[in-house]
Amino acid sequence: MSILVDASSLLVISALGIYIHAIFLSISLGFPWIILALLYKWWRTGEEEYFQATRTVTGVLGLNFALGAITGTLVEFGLVQAWPGTIFVIATFAFVPLTLELVAFAGEIVLLVLFIVTLRKIKPVGSIVIMAAYLAMAALSGAVIMTVNSWLNVPWGTQSLASNLYPFLPSYGPEAINPIALLKLKLALVGQLLTGGNPASLIQNPKVASSVGVTLRDPFVAFGSPYDWVSILHAVNAAMIFGISVGLVAYSFSFFKTRNVTYLKLIRAFLPILLVLMILQPTIIGDSMGKMVAAYQPTKFALMEGINKTRTDPLIAFLGYGDPSRSVIGFDSFTNACQQLNGKTLGDLAQIANVTVGTQSSLSLKQLCSTDVLSSASNLTVVNGVFLSKIASGIVALVTLLALASLVFDFGFISRIGRKIFDGLGREKAMFLLSVIFLVGVMMAAGLGWFVREVGRKPWTVYGLVYPEELITPVPVSPIVLGLFTLAFALVAIIGLYGMYYVATRPLKFTELLDKGAGAEK
Amino acid sequence: MTLTNIELLGFSILGIAVIVHIIIVNITIGTGWISAMARYLAWRRGAAELEVMSRRVFKILIIHELFGGVWGTIITVILAGFFPTLTAIATDVIFYPIIIALVAIFIRIPAIALFWYSWGKVRPALHSVLGFVMALSGFGVPLGFRYIFAETTYPFAIGLALQGLRDVSRLMVFFNPLYPSLILHTWAGALSIGGFIVASFFCIKGNVNPKFAWIGLWHGVLFLGAQIFFGPFYLLNLSSKAPLLFDNVLGQTGASIDLLPIFAIKICAVAMIGLIAVGTWKEIKRGDGSVPRYAIFLAPGAVLVAMLGEFLNDAGKFPYLVLTGSTGLSPALFMNAYLSIPLYVVFAVVSALLGLVGVFMATAYYALNRRYLPDMPRS
Predict the structure, then answer these.
(1) CA-based nearest residue in chain B for residue A115
(2) B227, B266 Cβ separation under 8 angstroms
(3) Beta carbons of B359 and A114 less than 8 Å apart
(4) Is the pLDDT assigned to residue A521 strictly greater than 70?
(5) What ipTM does the predicted assembly reach?
(6) C-alpha Rg value of chain B to the nearest Å
(7) Hey, what long-range contacts does B157-164 have (CB within 8 A, 24 or more apart)?
(8) Most exposed: A69, A138, B95, B245, by fewest CB within 10 Å?
(9) Is B326 domain-assigned?
(10) Between B316 and A422, residue with greater pLDDT
(11) Average pLDDT of A399-420?
């Protein structure tokens, strides 16, 4: 039996899709660093093992890229199929970022194919330039997608629209919108939601589009958000770290299994890059991210830090606001702020927008505000727990990487301590164990961090403005179909990952016929 | 009815993206099938040379596949950016066919990568199965997406949805009477283009092989022959289901745009391919003999036919985006009303994309003609 899908189950499936895609895109962003490092070494030393390693990593990158492209396409189509309301966002705030993404995506493919077909046919420095350009395109692709996601988190350019509904929210940048048009659309969505209709179906109606009219005046406004720039650095850097750490584990494993020092040489080539990225992540980028959340997403910040009641906490206040003397705002303050809306109704907003909302006009805005604050607060334990786990995972990852680096390089006193600690295990085993712990730490930190980012902005999809229920498809889908789709998605990911392992590790076995064919041709 | 500049731009850019996409996917679907067949026959017959052929043909696919996919994504963004209302309708009424296409893509791309990278690493039987999964999933993509084209040409299910029968329309979309002729025309076209591409590929200097060219040629000829039935079948369907498109293609009275010259060029191109194919057939029957140099024109000829065919199909709707018999629904109805689209961004992005097409073509040339992708898998 087909039933209308509820937002929460579809959110879980969408999240799974994004997580699976994230694995592949992280490798797409991390492996180019490894290839660049190996190519550089090959160029400078001429040692063949660097070239052979480059070729193997490139093979895995090629397969990974195909899997990333397919999961990305599915996530993209899934977005417009499952959440057709997002088509409005694509047609407005996300229009410029997504058109740029097209160039980045096309560029990635062209440059990757160019790199593969010209490797060893041109000078190493030429290959380095092509791979660097590929990496730039991959990073641009990630950056513009993050711009869209950041706009959903902080709807930059809507100025005071959200704070009119939720007085505890700040103003979001300049007024790049026609507030009346956006208000009209919002009221139409709410009207549909309250009367049991499907809000997302509204945008199928050409009359609705023409009655709402031009909503966005500045199509570039999403790029002006400081939250966006920090988010780009935070997410892209995290993805690069994760991608490189996959390579690190692979080489550590090979070193452990074979005791062949070539693998240690290969690790030495790219480990410094990983160290730099890893040190930057919590110290500068992560800290800035926290400050951005505190400034623009007060409910998320309260969830992360577990602040139910407003209180004094110099450490959190310093980390969040840069001012230890400030009180840390909790959910009680948000509920109190809702009182400012006392007496105001949906009908008042409808009057401003010059539209009618029928029987729903008496809906109290204070009640709406308080209900949403409560809804957000219901996630406090989960988000706070996940956030603290993320921080712990990040610390474990950083410490582990420093320990691993002390075994690979000679940091004098620090390396001597490291070797003493891991003496009993042996260097190969210790490196493998540390690299696995590091990978798990990074994966946990990144995965849990994304959870906080997404769940932390609930109950809204567009923070302070739009609920998931206003975007969901009107098409009834059988739960069995949804289950099968999810299973298939997971299977492709598992088979794909196994395929990459296979490509990287298996020697040729069955090429007799092909050999014969090639020989016969000669 | 006249279109505003922005409507015309949206209509044209969508058309360009669709045509580029269709050309590339036709090449990949056709070559995918031939490569899989050759791989299978190589294993079953112990025919070493067929395995070499399979791998070389597969290289054509590898080079084109992902780039074709990018243009699919480009179409989605253009649709959602320029025509959000139409996109919203499509994601509702044509929900299930789009899911079919997605599932096919979902299987296709990993299968391509696995087929290439597992060459020589897994048993030949398993590799052949992978090949067929890769090839057949390619046919599944138009199997789903062609419903969108059928519905914009003859809005059978959309019509039901507009009458309030939305739930019914989501299933009735599968019974669009225009669809069977369109999908047969599409599949035969892809196989025929794939065949001619392969035939031309094996008559390029340094890559000449009459046996391989012959296999491509008979595929091309066989499915070009099938088009003698499928083409008129589709045209006949248009005469009753989409009379405006029919009139436009044949330049009849009542046409909103006269495309008869384009149609005539297409027919001439088909005839030219037929002549070249017959000549080549005589020279390399059953793979013996030497490939004539003029056989190289089979591939560009086939691509030209695909391009003109898709142009007729899409531009033939002008000035409408969706046809309703002898008239249609204007792009204005579906146009993005929420944003004044920054034209310079659109032009810059389109220029960059076309530039990348150029780099891509140069790369493809080097990869295929200079054998920059290895014939033998490397350990």
Answers:
(1) B363
(2) no
(3) yes
(4) no
(5) 0.84
(6) 21
(7) B157/B93, B157/B94, B158/B89, B158/B93, B158/B322, B159/B324, B161/B89, B161/B92, B161/B93
(8) B95
(9) yes
(10) B316
(11) 88
Task: Assess A179–B contact: CB distance below 8 Å, yes or no.
Answer: no
d(CA B87, CA B148): 10
Taking residue A48's Cβ as centre, other Cβ atoms within 10 Å add up to 9
Note whether B52 contacts A: Cβ–Cβ < 8 A. Answer: yes
pLDDT tens readout for residues A217-271:
999 999 999 999 999 999 999 999 999 999 999 999 999 999 999 999 999 999 9
Supply the angle between the helices B48-82 and A512-521 in degrees, to the nearest 10: 100
Planar angle of CA A126, A129, A134, nearest 5 degrees: 130
Q: Does residue B260 lie within any of the structural domains?
A: yes
Report residue A328 as tokens: 């840390």
- How close is the nearest chain A Cα to the Cα of B121, in Å? 5
Q: Do B363 and A506 touch (CB under 8 A)?
A: no
Residue B77 lies in a domain: yes
pLDDT tens-digit map of A349-391: 888 877 777 777 788 999 999 999 999 999 999 999 999 999 9
Pick B333's closest partner by Cβ from A78, A105, A206.
A206
What is the pLDDT at residue A427? Answer: 86
Please give the Cα distance from A475 to A5 (Å, whole number). Answer: 8
Query: B192 vs chain A: nearest CA distance in angstroms?
Result: 26
Nearest residue in chain A measured CA to CA from B85: A204
Across the interface, do A476 and B372 touch by the CB < 8 Å criterion?
Answer: no
For residue B197, give the nearest of B215, B180, B210, B216 by alpha carbon: B216
Tell whether B167 is within 8 A of chain A (Cβ).
yes
Tell me the C-alpha distance between B98 and A3, whole Å.
Answer: 19
- From chain B, the residues in CB contact with A203 under 8 A are 84-85, 88
Nearest to B98 by CA among A99, A22, A199, A477: A477
Number of domains within chain B: 1
CB-CB neighbors (< 8 A) of B92 in chain A: 84, 201, 204, 473-475
Helix (H, G, I), strand (E, B) or coil at A367: helix
Token output for A289: 């991210």
Question: Does residue B6 sit at the A interface (CB-CB below 8 Å)?
Answer: no
B70 chain-A contacts, CB cut-off 8 A:
102, 105-106, 109
- Cross-chain Cβ contact A98/B77 below 8 Å: yes
Q: Which of residues 50-109 of A touch B (CB under 8 A)?
A: 55, 59, 62-63, 65-67, 69-70, 73-74, 76-78, 80-81, 84, 87-88, 90-92, 95-96, 98-103, 105-107, 109
Coil, helix or strand at residue A74 = helix
- The B residues from 240 to 299 touching A (CB cutoff 8 Å) are none
Determine the residue type at A215.
T
Residue A349 C-beta-side C-alpha neighbours within 13 Å? 29
For testing contact with chain A, the best of B107, B109, B343 (most A CBs within 10 A): B109
Please give the torsion angle defined by the CA atoms of residues B171, B174, B177 and B180, in that order, rounded to the nearest 10 degrees: -170
- The answer to whether residue B12 sits within a structural domain is yes
Which residue in A has a C-alpha nearest to residue B116's C-alpha?
A63
In 3D space, the residue among B103, B107, B144, B132 whose CA is nearest the CA of residue B33 turns out to be B132
| Length, in residues, of chain B | 379
Residues of chain B falling short of pLDDT 70: 1, 370-374, 376, 378-379
Q: How confident is the model at residue A1 (pLDDT cuts 50, 70, 90)?
A: very low
CA dihedral for B77, B79, B81, B85, sign (positive or negative): negative
Q: Which residue has the tokens 């092909």?
A: A514
Residues of A in contact with B145 (CB under 8 A): none
**Amino acid (1-letter code) at residue A185:** L
Cα–Cα nearest to B290, from B208, B206, B204 = B208
Say which residues have a Cβ less than 8 Å from residue A15's Cβ, sequence separation at least 6: A454
Domain with B79, as residue range(s), is 5-369
Do residues A246 and A439 touch, judged by C-beta distance below 8 A? yes
